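Continuing from yesterday's entry. The apo prediction looked reasonable, so today I'm repeating it with guanosine-5'-diphosphate included to see how the binding region is handled. Same sequence as before; SMILES copied from the compound registry.
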Amino acid sequence: MSTIVALATPAGNSGVAVIRISGEKSKTILQKLIKEDLDFEPRKMYLKNVYVGEIVDTALVVFFSTPNSFTGEDVVEIQSHGGYLLAQKIIDEAISHGATMATPGEFSKRAFINGKLSIDQAEGIMDLINAESELQARLGSSLMQGQLKENINKIQLALTEILAEIEAKLDYPEYEYTTAETSNILETLKDIRTKLTSLIDSSKNGSVIKNGIKVAIVGAPNVGKSSLLNALTKSQKAIVTNIAGTTRDIIEADYEYKGIIFKLYDTAGIHESDDEVEKIGISRAKQALKDCDLVLLVSDENNICDIITDKPSIKIFNKSDLLNKKYTQSSNYIYVSTKTNENIENLKEVIFNKTITFDIKSNQLYITNTRHIECVKNCISRLESVISTFSTSTMDIISNEIKSAWSYLGEITGTTSNETIIDKIFSKFCLGK
Ligand SMILES: Nc1nc2c(ncn2[C@@H]2O[C@H](COP(=O)(O)OP(=O)(O)O)[C@@H](O)[C@H]2O)c(=O)[nH]1
Ligand SMILES: [Mg+2]
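Holo prediction written out below.
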């Protein structure tokens, strides 16, 4: 296996950059970089000069001895001063001493091959890295800690026990199963199916946590849609003017509320227009109406929004600051002012309650990864097939179906995946991970 090198921190200027090397030659490459034949004590930081051509940097270096490292191989980490050129030079120098540039996800792939991580755990690390909300981070972290893997292993073990029982008796074709035995097998299979189905149900909520809620802001021109996007996201992302037709393309901005990401889509005011560009904007607004999970129908004193949608929606009356105090508020509307921020926080609560209908429990297992969902669904479909034909099938057919169900589960953790699939999964990871 080659020795690989990559930058583990983002490319660019920073206080420190971390360069990682993994493989047999790690230690000798490090010795060459520091021009010293030091026998490094594993997991101990050393302050050393690193030589790259004419450049000398002072860096912290650490050596991890196989198997006690992230990849399970000998690993070196060099904390040099941050700087695109410097880090690149150190990497080039390592390559000149025998390392090769790592491909995306190659460190994690090696960790998997060496039994340090299951694939779903490695995917959990990526989810944690990419998390934009606290809840997403929490799900990534529980995946990384092996919460899904443990559940899958338990279910696989239950299937293995059934298989062992069947296989032992397959050698004795004359063996007659008692009713108690067959009904026991059937009940266990049904029980496993129920568990997996509830996992799939949880994935709907997991997807909300992972992907967020899409909210389209629609209404007539000038009612304050762009102002509302800015107020909710506490940004100035959308241009606000008193000129009707200012917003033409869709403007996107996010905010987080109670751990959920809400993705707002500010749209062009929907009305009859002769302006070519605005017309395209209006058709995009109509598309956003179709693609979203929730619609904010925005009105003001002059323009009551009459857009009809079959999506969940909230009627908003903006510019409440302009209303006469004695004005009676209609209970159909949430009155807000993007100018004074009146009711903006309350609106966030209303949006949350309208879209999040489940309790977010911290210890609940949510599956969010489409690959995992596919594997579980495939497993369920094999189980469905065994269960529905159980009374008429022979035990060897049943056994084959159970093996196939077991195999689908193994793809989640990687125990039954083939090389092509494994390569495909890890290639989606980032460089240096
Ligand atoms: N008084 C008042 N004016 C507002 C409020 N919200 C927006 N406006 C004004 O209404 C005009 C249109 O706002 P804009 O957000 O561009 O509306 P859009 O066309 O629906 O995106 C701008 O002049 C804003 O300053 C509000 O809450 N109160
Ligand atoms: Mg606008």
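Comparison notes:
- The first helix runs from residue 26 to 34.
- Residues 225-226, 238, 246-247 surround magnesium ion (ligand 2) (CB under 6 Å).
Will overlay with the apo model tomorrow.
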